[in-house]
Structure formats: C-alpha cells, structure tokens
C-alpha cells in the first residue's frame, strides 16, 4: 500500500465533515482491570489513560473476540490539543529541515503520515487509541515495529500492510485488525497500532454523515 492509495489525515475532505458531538465523557482506563495499560506515554494528568466511554466498551468487546491467550495492551488514548500541536509542529520542522526543497504543503502532507494535523486529530477527541497485543505472560507480540515508530525510522514498516514484514508479523497484525474491525474501529493505514471510532477520519472511511466526537478541552480536573 502506497501513500497514493491511502487517505491521509491531511486530506481536505476531513475538515468538511460535520461534528455532531454526542457528549460522551472521557473514562479512565485505569478503572478497567480487564484492559492492560502501558505507561510509556504516561503524563501527569493521566490523559493518556482516558477514552470516550463508548470506545472503552468497544475495547472490552475486542478482548472478548481475541483468542484466550491474547489481549490488548493500550498505550495511549486521549491527547490534549496543546500536546498534539507540539508533536505535529516538531515533526513538521524535522521534515522541513531534512527536505529544504519541499513546499509547505508537502511538509504538511508528509507530517500527516505519522501525526494528525491538530484540527482533525482523533486523539484530541478521545476517539482514538494506540495499542498492541500481548500474550498470557504480558509479553508484546511481534508487530514488526514498536508503537509510534515513524516511517523514516521504520523504513515504512509501520504501515499496516507493508509488504516487507514477516509472515508472523503479518499474522499478528491481521489478528489485531480482525478483532478491532469487528468492534467497529477503523485503522489509520500508516500506523498499525492506531485505531479510532466516531471521529472525522472514521466518518470519512465509513461514509457516516458526521463525526460523533469533537475536540475536548480536558485539563485533568
């Protein structure tokens, strides 16, 4: 799968999708013992451990769909808007410095392979989750790259359907995809670990008339 065949987060159609906010609150995953939570993206306010409650219910369904010896390991859920802006601006600056001939539109598009522009970012809505699979002993399955490995550092292997990954990696990604898709989530094809529901990207992918979740201004209170 190439960038030409992928709808990137920079696609202008996303901004045209209306948001009809359903008002679901964020829920703390640390209160859900059935879901394993990793702390590599932990922040002082605990934003990383929160998701819209409707997504929490769907993740519990995913765990039920997986083979008994596997379960989800959640890495990051909600991401404050200011943090999303920081990540996107920093990555865009790195790409700009490394590719001085690129136009600003090229920088923006290429940055969106790995980080969503803040104005359409699913994490900012509490509508996206970064996760992987673990076995019965809590060890992460071989998914080909670490969670959050960018296209440059992974040689493109972060793309969900990258042709050069091993057969075992492909099988593990397929296992994750089948369970997540069955629960209604959609994947961002440049990141095997990124799944969302109810955001603008979900609406564009599924043909829904509107997004269910808009940006949240949650400060830890």
What would a concise description of this structure say?
The protein has 221 residues and is of the alpha+beta class. Helices cover 30% and strands 13% of the residues.
What is the rounded distance between the termini? 42 Å
Strands, total number? 7
DSSP helix fraction? 25-40%
Order of helices and strands: EEEHEHHEHHEEH
Q: Uncertain regions: pLDDT < 50 for 5+ in a row?
A: none
- So what's the overall shape? globular
Strand order of the largest sheet: 2-4-5-7-6
How confident overall, as mean pLDDT?
94
Determine the number of helices (DSSP H or I, runs of at least 4 residues): 6
Secondary-structure content class: alpha+beta
| Biggest beta-sheet profile | 5 strands, mixed
Strand content: 5-15%
Q: Rg from C-alpha positions?
A: 17 Å
Characterise this structure:
The mean pLDDT is 94. Helix content is 30%, strand content 13%. It is an alpha+beta fold and 221 residues long. The chain contains 6 helices and 7 strands; from the N terminus they run E-E-E-H-E-H-H-E-H-H-E-E-H. The strands form 2 sheets. It has a 5-stranded mixed beta sheet, sandwiched between helices. A two-stranded antiparallel sheet has the order 1-3. The chain starts with 25 loop residues before the first strand and ends in a 15-residue tail after the last helix. The longest helix has 18 residues. Strand 6 and strand 7 form a beta hairpin.
């Amino acid at each position: 799968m190439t960038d030409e065949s992928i709808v990137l987060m920079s696609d202008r159609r996303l901004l045209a999708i209306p948001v009809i906010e359903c008002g679901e609150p964020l829920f703390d995953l640390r209160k859900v013992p059935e879901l394993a939570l990793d702390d590599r993206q932990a922040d002082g306010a605990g934003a990383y451990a929160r998701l819209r409650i409707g997504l929490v219910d769907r993740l519990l369904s995913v765990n039920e769909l997986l083979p008994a010896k596997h379960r989800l390991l959640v890495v990051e859920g909600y991401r404050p808007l200011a943090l999303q802006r920081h990540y996107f601006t920093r990555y865009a600056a790195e790409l700009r410095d490394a590719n001085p001939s690129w136009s600003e539109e090229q920088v923006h598009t290429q940055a969106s392979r790995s980080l969503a522009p803040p104005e359409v970012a699913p994490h900012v809505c509490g509508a996206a989750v970064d996760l992987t699979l673990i076995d019965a002993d809590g060890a992460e399955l071989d998914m080909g790259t670490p969670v959050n490995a960018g296209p440059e550092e992974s040689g493109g292997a972060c793309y969900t359907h990258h042709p050069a990954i091993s057969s075992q990696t492909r099988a593990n990604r397929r296992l994750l995809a089948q369970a997540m898709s069955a629960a209604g989530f959609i994947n961002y094809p440049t990141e095997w670990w990124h799944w969302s529901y109810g955001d603008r990207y979900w609406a564009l992918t599924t043909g829904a008339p509107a997004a269910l979740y808009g940006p949240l201004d949650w400060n830890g209170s």
